[in-house]
Design a protein that fits this description.
Strand order of the largest sheet: 2-1-3-4
CATH architecture: 3-Layer(aba) Sandwich
Shape: globular
Order of helices and strands: HHEHHEHEEHEEEEH
Number of helices: 7
CATH class: Alpha Beta
Number of domains: 1
Number of strands: 8
CATH topology: Glutaredoxin
Strand content: 15-25%
CATH superfamily: Glutaredoxin
Helix content: 25-40%
Length: 312
């Protein structure tokens, strides 16, 4: 059987009392980069030991992205058989149209996928909604306010890990609910262990690449504005680091794709055959889509790739 010519692209964190933020005295230092040392990151955003993350200085220390070639280098071309298992991959349109459950995700896997796909930092909130007064205060004074909701919807992906697990699905039997509750409790325990969380409330900031860049421990009533200021600073640092991370992936063949509904995905093309594209995202998620479902810009890019190779 004659093989068609597929190719890949070059251009794709209970503090014992839960009462202290861990930021020291009652005075509130101004949120300026000079107050946080040469890294520009407040101590509260940096964990001890291996969880400290990589300090990133906002304002242009990252090298400028190199220009992305218009044509995929020959050494990056991937030869595949049109009858390969890629045909069983999920459709990209299905992945992009997955419904959002609410402002706070409950699955780490889904939250990380969204962060990488949308290029936004991931805010993980470890809380005990039933037993911790400071967790309730943080929710009431900041996270439940309309101003924070509007800002966070634009700037962040949010994941809530609540120590008080519940299962209210009426379709499950008593035994199934008990099993589900055990699974949820194990999930919370594993997440706290993985991110070295010792108490609630604890809030972590992760880059879209999954790197922990900030930790916010505890909360004090009346500190909502200052707490939000720390989160805003972390988001700005993450946004700067993301541009460098993305530029590095673009050199490896990743680019932004857009469908007819203007939904976007940052991915690398690993195969093309008879109008079917196979894509892989930075987190390893693989999918396929049809050329005719893509934007005019993407279709024009594909056409430019075909011409020098005499492909129709």
């Amino acid at each position: 059987m004659r093989r068609l010519f597929p190719w890949s692209l070059a251009g794709v964190a209970v503090l014992a009392s839960c009462a202290k933020l861990g930021i020291g005295s009652h005075s509130k230092p101004a949120l300026q980069s000079s107050a946080f040392g040469s890294t520009g990151i407040p101590p509260q955003l940096r964990a001890k030991g291996q969880d400290a993350g990589t300090p990133v200085v906002p304002g242009g220390t990252a090298p400028k992205p190199a220009a992305v070639p218009n044509l995929t280098p020959e050494e990056d071309i991937v030869f595949t058989d049109p009858d390969n298992p890629d045909a069983k991959l999920p459709e990209l349109s299905t992945l992009l149209s997955a419904p959002k459950r609410g402002p706070w995700e409950e699955s780490e896997t889904i939250a990380k996928q969204r962060a990488a796909r949308e290029g936004k930092p991931l805010l993980i909130w470890f809380t005990d909604s039933a037993r911790s007064p400071m967790c309730k205060a943080l929710a009431q004074e900041l996270f439940a306010t309309p101003d924070f909701e509007q800002w966070a919807t634009e700037k962040l992906i949010r994941l809530r890990i609540d120590a008080q697990v519940q299962e209210n699905n009426p379709d499950l039997s008593l035994g199934e609910k008990e099993t589900r509750l055990v699974d949820l409790k194990n999930y919370v325990t594993s997440m706290k262990k993985r991110y070295k969380v010792l108490g609630q409330p604890s809030v972590l900031m992760l880059n879209p690449s999954g790197e922990v860049i900030g930790r916010y421990r505890g909360y004090k009533r009346g500190e909502a504005d200052y707490f939000w200021g720390l989160i805003k600073h972390g988001e700005a640092v993450s946004a700067n680091a993301y541009q460098s991370w993305r530029a590095g992936l673009e050199k490896k063949g990743y680019r932004e794709w857009q469908d007819r509904k203007e939904r976007k995905v940052f991915a690398k093309l690993t195969g093309y055959s008879n109008g079917t594209l196979t894509l892989i995202e930075p987190d390893g998620t693989r999918s396929r889509t049809q050329e005719n479902l893509l934007s005019d810009k993407d279709r024009a890019w594909i056409a430019d790739q075909k011409k020098p190779r005499n492909l129709q």
